[in-house]
UniProtKB/TrEMBL annotation:
One of its GO terms (cellular component) is plastid. This is Probable plastid-lipid-associated protein 7, chloroplastic. The gene is LOC111292847. It holds the Pfam family PAP_fibrillin. Residues 20-200 form the Plastid lipid-associated protein/fibrillin conserved domain. InterPro entries: PAP, PAP/fibrillin_dom. It is found in: Plastid. Belongs to the PAP/fibrillin family. Keywords: Plastid, Transit peptide.
């Protein structure tokens, strides 16, 4: 199938694997969308996300938490860090935002978010922000999330970021609720009470 045929293929005939392939192609080079996405690209991504959600194999995800448990890596989000906020955090010239993970322990009803940072030219300062939360089932597809605590490690990175801790939490704190609108063996899509969309892939 050439590119034109693929583009003209009716949405209802596209398999989940094909939609995922198109999604991963669409998010190439945008750093998970955190530093902004051009509107045409964003519309394409959102359309693919909606297509996946329409084929959700686990519509009552909160009642099947075994599907949700484990470690996930963020591949796309509508959370954005732009302008003065990005400058204040040092994410233009000083810090590099690396991988963002979420580990979900179903038996303990706990979720741990890990945001990794590199400090340019100073590997000794490389580290992470860890945010711990608990959750409880609110409906068939929704969980309520309660923030517990956060830490920055190692100490050297904490000394750099401690004045920006509240700003980091305002961006990455998961407290509120989360609707799981798609989950299978390799991908999960959620939307929080702030209107943000998250797409994660299962990670080791």
């Amino acid at each position: 199938m050439d590119a034109e045929e693929k583009e003209n293929e009716p949405s209802e005939y596209r398999t989940v694997d094909l939609i995922k392939s198109d999604f991963y192609q669409a998010i190439k080079g945008i750093n998970r969308g955190i530093f902004g996405v051009q509107s045409a690209r964003k519309s394409e991504i959102e359309e693919l996300v909606e297509l996946l959600k329409s084929q959700n194999p686990t519509p009552d995800a909160a009642l099947h938490l075994e599907k949700v448990g484990g470690c996930w890596k963020l591949v796309y989000s509508t959370i954005t860090i732009l302008g003065a906020k990005r400058t204040k955090l040092g994410l233009r010239h000083f810090l590099t935002l690396r991988d963002i993970y979420q580990s979900i322990d179903v038996t303990q009803a706990k979720a741990i978010n890990v945001v990794e940072f590199d400090v340019r030219g100073l590997s000794l300062l490389n580290g992470q922000l860890t945010i711990e939360a608990t959750f409880k089932i609110a409906s068939k597809s929704r969980v309520d999330i309660c923030y517990e605590k956060s830490t920055i490690t190692p100490d050297q990175l904490r000394n750099v970021l401690w004045r920006k801790h509240d700003l980091l939490l305002s961006i990455f704190n998961p407290e509120g609720w989360l609707d799981v609108s798609y989950v299978d063996d390799t991908m999960m899509i959620g939307r929080d009470d702030k209107g943000n969309t998250f797409v994660l892939e299962r990670s080791e």
